[in-house]
Specification:
mainly alpha
C-alpha cells in the first residue's frame, strides 16, 4: 500500500485518495503502526537519513506523553518477545499483560492509536509487509473487546494465536526495555548485521551483539577496544609493507587514532571496524 501523497495537477483526485489512505491507516492497530515505524527508522539509520531519526524522536516523545500508547508499547513488546512451552504459564502471561489495558475503553485505545496513525501517515514510502500482522491483530482484539457473552469466540481465537506465537517463538538476546532509539531498533539491526557479517567468527559476532544492546559506557569501551585492536593489526602490517601500501596503512592508522565515539553513528563505525579487523586478520 502506498502512503499519502499530494499532486497539484489533480487536486480533487488526490484529496479523495489521501482521505481514503488516511482512513485505512487510522484502522491499523498499534502493533502494525509500530512495525512500520521500526522498519522506516532502521532503514534510515543504515542510510544516515535524518528524517527517519526525527520520526523516531517524535515517536519516543509521543510514547512518553501518551499513557495509553506507552502501555500498548510495553504489552506488544512483552508478547512479541515471550518464549514458553507451558500453556498454563502462557495463559496467565497473556491475561496479566492484557489486564494492563483494562482501564481503557476501546474508544480511548482507538483514539490514542489514531494519533500515532497520523504520524505514520507522514511516511513517504511504501509500507512493509508485517510478518506479525496476525499476532498484532489478536493482541488488539483482546485489548478492545472486553469480556462478555458476545466477545467470547473472538477472544478465544485471539488467545489461541498469541499462545501459538509464544510456544513457537525463537529466543532473542534481551535488550533494555527503555523507550530509546537503540532499544527500538536493536532487534532488526542485529538481524541485518548478523546477515552481513555471517562469515565472522563467534567472538566477533558476540562483540557485535553486545555493542548493539549495551549501554553508552559499555558501547564506548567496546569501540575503544576495537580501535586498539585495529591499530595493533595495522602496526603489524606496517612492518611488512612499503610504498603505496604502507602509505595507505599509515593513513588508516591516522583515521583510527582520530576516531571518536558518537552515539548516533557508533553502530555504523563498529561495523566498519569489524570489517577492517576481519581484513587485517
Amino acid at each position: 500500500m502506498m502512503p499519502i501523497v499530494s499532486n497539484k495537477t489533480n487536486t480533487s483526485f488526490y484529496l479523495v485518495f489521501n482521505y481514503l489512505m488516511l482512513k485505512v491507516i487510522m484502522q491499523k492497530n498499534f502493533g502494525e503502526l509500530k512495525y512500520i515505524i521500526k522498519e522506516f527508522v532502521a532503514d534510515g539509520i543504515a542510510a544516515k537519513i535524518d528524517i527517519n531519526k526525527r520520526l523516531l524522536k517524535d515517536f519516543v516523545t509521543l510514547l512518553k506523553e501518551n499513557e495509553i500508547l506507552k502501555k500498548e508499547f510495553l504489552v506488544y513488546n512483552n508478547i512479541e518477545g515471550k518464549v514458553s512451552e507451558s500453556e498454563a504459564y502462557i495463559s496467565e502471561y497473556i491475561k496479566e499483560n492484557i489486564k494492563i489495558m483494562e482501564a481503557y475503553t476501546s474508544k480511548q485505545i482507538d483514539e490514542a492509536n489514531g494519533i500515532l496513525a497520523k504520524m505514520v501517515a507522514t511516511i513517504n514510502t511504501e509500507y512493509p509487509k508485517n510478518p506479525l500482522s496476525q499476532l498484532h491483530e489478536s493482541i488488539h482484539t483482546l485489548m478492545v473487546n472486553k469480556v462478555n457473552i458476545m466477545t467470547i469466540e473472538k477472544r478465544v481465537n485471539a488467545t489461541g494465536v498469541i499462545t501459538e506465537h509464544i510456544k513457537t517463538n525463537t529466543p532473542k538476546v534481551k535488550v533494555a526495555d527503555r523507550l530509546l532509539p537503540n532499544s527500538m531498533v536493536s532487534d532488526i539491526l542485529k538481524e541485518r548485521f548478523n546477515k552481513k557479517y555471517s562469515n565472522l567468527d563467534g567472538d566477533t559476532k558476540r562483540v557485535l551483539n553486545s555493542v548493539i544492546s549495551a549501554n553508552k559506557d559499555t558501547r564506548e569501551g567496546i569501540m575503544v577496544g576495537l580501535v586498539r585492536e585495529c591499530v595493533d593489526l595495522v602496526d603489524v602490517s606496517l612492518k611488512e609493507s612499503s610504498g603505496e601500501i604502507k602509505e595507505k596503512l599509515l593513513s588508516t592508522k591516522d583515521r583510527l587514532l582520530r576516531l571518536k565515539y558518537h552515539n548516533d553513528t557508533y553502530i555504523i563505525e563498529v561495523g566498519k571496524l569489524l570489517d577492517l579487523k576481519n581484513t587485517l586478520t
